[in-house]
Design brief:
- 3% of the residues lie in helices and 41% in strands.
- The chain is mostly beta strands.
- Strands 2, 3, 5, 6, 8, 13, 14, 15 and 18 form a nine-stranded antiparallel beta sheet that branches. Strands 9-10-11-12-16 form a five-stranded antiparallel beta sheet, with no helix packed on it. It has a three-stranded antiparallel beta sheet with strand order 4-7-17, with no helix packed on it.
- A hairpin with a 4-residue loop joins strand 11 and strand 12.
């Protein structure tokens, strides 16, 4: 007898696997840094001359060391009333920020930055009003890889770092109320904001324009990918006494009699 289980990813998939159904709703982009393409099949421009591939414990990513657009998407965020961004990123030089995702060129729609002072800044704009805030300084350190989730939903800004909520309440510029993102033709960039320089590694970026369970999303960046199928074998006469199928759920390894 065998039991089929579906196991969430806890590491970066090294080949295309698709997006889990529960995370596909409202997803605007999800860049695959292994195949250097969008996981949703969306049109994306990658400038191969402006980055260096990196392989670290976090997985495969790119090292960005200038302010040239590295990865650019057509803009699909206009008129949306929520924005959630999940990224796995390292700031590698303390004096320079890293921009995992941004739309701020001729016009400003949103931006998300790991600042030079160790603060995380996040902002949204609706063409006349802006809501931009940051965390306290020292939340992130140079040379450390983080999974960071930032969100604008329910008219508030939120931030989670490695699974824990971090206040994002230090005002930078607040003017009026932002009810929806503007509709712009400006591109959306991974790792770019002119004229500031980016110095850091980016391993994962995904974005949604529907509300998400932020605490749950922040626990594991790789859960958004279609789960792995695992087969658990048990004796044909039936499962051994005390065996529970629940043991096999949400595990990235196979449980078996005598396993060490």
């Amino acid at each position: 007898m065998s039991i089929i289980t579906r196991v969430p990813w806890t590491v970066q998939p090294q080949s295309p696997v698709g997006i889990a159904a529960e995370h596909s709703r409202g997803m605007e982009l999800c860049f695959d840094f292994v195949s250097m393409r969008d996981s949703l099949g969306k049109s994306v421009t990658v400038d191969s001359g402006t980055y260096t591939p990196v392989i670290e414990k976090a997985g495969r990513g790119i090292y960005i060391s200038n302010n040239i657009p590295v990865i650019s998407y057509p803009n699909s965020f206009g008129a949306k009333t929520s924005l959630v961004i999940s990224a796995v990123v390292t700031r590698t030089l303390g004096s320079n920020p890293v921009f995992p995702l941004i739309c701020w060129n001729a016009n400003f729609q949103f931006y998300y930055v790991l600042g030079a002072a160790g603060a995380i800044e996040f902002g949204v704009y609706n063409g006349g009003n802006a809501l931009i805030r940051k965390t306290a300084t020292g939340v992130i350190s140079t040379g450390v890889t983080y999974h960071i989730v930032v969100a604008w939903q329910n008219s508030q800004l939120y931030c989670y770092v490695n699974g824990s909520s971090v206040p994002i309440d230090i005002d930078i510029w607040v003017s009026g109320t932002v009810t929806a993102l503007p509709t712009l033709s400006d591109l959306v960039y991974v790792g770019y904001k002119s004229p500031d320089y980016n110095v850091g590694n980016v391993f994962h970026v995904a974005a949604w324009t529907t509300p998400k369970n932020l605490e749950q999303l922040s626990q594991n960046p790789w859960q958004i990918f279609a789960p792995q199928t695992r087969r658990i074998w048990a004796p044909s006469a039936g499962a051994p006494s005390g065996f529970q199928a629940a043991w096999a759920r949400n595990r990235s390894y196979v449980i078996g009699a005598g396993a060490r």
